[in-house]
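Protocol step 4 of 5: obtain the predicted structure for the target chain.
Materials: sequence only (see below). No template structures provided, no constraints applied. The aim of this step is simply to have a reference model before the mutagenesis design in step 5. Sequence pasted as it appears in the construct record:
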Amino acid sequence: MGEGAEGARSGRSASGLGQLEQSLAVAADLAGLTEALARGCAWMGLVGWALMLFQRDGTHLFPCALAGLGKRWQPPLRPLSTQEAWPVGRAALGQECVDCGTPRPYPLPAKAGTAAWMVLPLAKGQGVAVALRPGLTAFGPSELDYLRDAVSLLDRYLPGVQRTGHAEQSLPRLTQRSAGAFRLDLADESVEGDEIFARQHALPGPGRFPLADILRRVPAQDLPRIEEILHHLRERPGTFEAAYRLTLDGGHTRHLRAHCTSSSGGTDQPMTVSGHVTDITTDTHRTDAREALLREQLRRADRMISLAASAASASGTRELAAAACEALAVFGADALVIADARHGHTHVVTAVGYDDEHRAAVDHISLTARAPLTDALCNQEAHFIPSHHDLVAAYPHYAAALPRLKRQAWAAIPLPLADPSTPAACMFSFNRPHAFQPADQPLLIAAAALLGRALERCRTYDTEHERAVRLQRSLLPTHLPQHPALHLAASYHPAAPQAHAGGDWYDAFPLPDGRIALTIGDVEGHHTKAAALMGRLRTTLRAYAALTPDPAAVLRRTNALLTADNDADPDHALLATCCLIALDPDTGRVDVATAAHPTPLIHTPDDLPETRIAPGLPLGIVRDTRYPTTRLTLPPHSRVLLHTDGLTDTPHTDPDHARDRLRRLLAATAHDAAALALHQITTSCIVTPHPHDDSALLLAHLVPAGRQ
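Step 4 output (C-alpha cells):
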C-alpha cells in the first residue's frame, strides 16, 4: 500500500473515532454497540463485528451480538470453550490475534472463503470482540490501530449497556388499590354499585343501573365470552374471578378484574352476584410492555429466532422438544420434558435427553406431591432451581435422592395454552448448576410461550400421524400364506410424522394354480388418499390374479383400471409402482413383472449373477401399456427380497449404494430365519426413529423339501 493511501486512511480513522464514540454512547443494548462498530468501520470496507462474551462459568464464549456479518461469516450459535484451539479462545485469555486468508477466528463452514480478521480481548476479561472483512486484503497498520481504539471505546461503554435492565420489584411489597363494590341481580339483569364502581364503569354515579349500560361498553369481540361467564354464574354458585375490558368514550380501553360470589337467593338457581372490582389497567399495560420487551429480545436473539422457526415447523411433539432443547443448549440445558395434568397426575407428553429411569421419575406424579414440575402445573408459575442446594431448600424430601440425580439445575415453566382445562408445563434440566440471571428467566419463559403455542398443533400432528399409520396398517395383510417349501416375512415402517399416511404396501396370497403371489408397491404421495388407493390396488391385484396366473397380464389390467380413473379425474390423478411375482415353492420357478418398481433382490446359495428384470411403465399413465415377464428358476435355500424405495431413496444417500448395501445384508443374513433376517436388514437400514419415507419389505425363503 502506498504512503499516500495509508495517510488518507489514517485521516479517515481519526475523524471516524469521534463519530464512533458518539454512537457507542447512545447505544441501548449489545446489538446497538456492534451496529455502531460496523458503521464506524465503513471507511475500511465491509467490516462486520461479533461480540463474544463469557458465560457465567467463565470458560465458554457465546456470540451475544453480531452486526455486518453475512450468514456464512457468523460464529456458531453455541458456547465455544476457551480450551478449543481457536484465536477467540487465545484472545479471551488476553492475546491479540490478527490474520488474513483461510485461517478462521472461530469455527466456520469450509465454504466461507477467505477473510482478514482481528480478535481483541475486552477489558476485565469479559470476552472478545472480532472484526472481520471478507476478502484477501489484510488490515493495514492504520486500520489495526483504529480497531484497537474502537475496542478501547467499546470497553468504556460496554459495562453501562450490560447494567441496563429492569430490576425486579422486591417482595413482599404493598400496592394501594381502590375497589368498587357491586351487586348484580341476574333475574332482572340490573347492577347496583357504589361511587368507585360507577367511576370505573363510566356510569353517572352510584345507584342501580341496567346491566346493558355496562355491556354496551364491552368490545364486540368480547361479548360472546361475557355471555358464557354470565351463564356460568347462573348455573352454579361459588366464588370467582373475572377479567374484562371496557371501551371508554375517548376510545381508551380500561381493564378490570372482578372478585365475586354468586348465591341462589332462595331458589335452585343462583340469582345474585356480589363482590368488588379493581382497575388493573396499569398492571395490564405494564404486562403488555413487558411482553413487548420480551418480543423485542426474541427478535434480537438469534437463538430464540431459531427456536421460533423450529417450533413453527415442528411436526410432532418430540420434534418440538428436540428443537427447543437444541436451541436452548446455550443456557446449558441438555434435557427437556413437556408434561400436562391428567386425572390428578403428571403425564409426560414428550421428553428429550431423559433416559427411561429419569423419564419415569417425572411421569405419573400425583399433583398433590411437591416437585418443580407439579408446582409449575398447579400454580401456573415458573420455578427456577439453580442447584442441588436450592432444590433441597425448596423441596427437602429430595435430599436423600441427590446422589441419583443426573441434573444439577432445573427450570419448570407453565405453557400458555388456548385451552387451559388441561394445564401443561415444560421443565428444562441442566447438567451443572446454573445461576439464572435476570436476562435468562424472561428468555426461558418466552421459550415456554413458543412451546405452548406450538404444542397443540404438534399434538394434532401426533394424532393425525397415529391415525394415518393405523389406517395404513389396517390395509396391509394380517397374515401371510403358509407353505411347506416357503417361509415368508414382511414389515412396514411408517415415515416421520410430517409425512402423514403413505402408499407403500406388500401382499402375499395363493394363486389358483397352486403358486404363491408376492407383490409390493408404492402409491405416490403421503396422504390419506394415497393410503386408500393402495388398499384398492392391493384388492384389484388379488381379483385379477384370480382370473389369470400371468403377472404381466395382472399388471396390464390393473394399469388399465387406474389409467381410466386418472383420465376421468385428472386433477386428482395418482400413479403407482408395483412388482408382482408368481412363485412355485416346489420347483423354484419364478415369473416376475414390474411396473417401474425396484426389482427384487435375489440371493442364491452359489451366489449366481443377478438376472436383469425388464421393467415397465408406472401404473396409471398409458392405458394399453404391456409389461414384460421375466422367468427364473431358483435353487433351494434361495431368498427373494422385495422392497420399496423408502429404503434406498433417502436424503444424502446414493440409491445405487443403498441398494448394494441391501444386497450385502441379504447375503449376510442368508443363514438366519426369515423373520430374524428381515429384522436385521431393517434395523441396519433404518437408523433414525423418524425416517424420511415409509418403507415396506417382503422376504421369501425357499426351503428344501421335507424341511420345516
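Step 4 remarks: The first strand starts at residue 48 and ends at 54. The mean pLDDT is 82.
Proceed to step 5.
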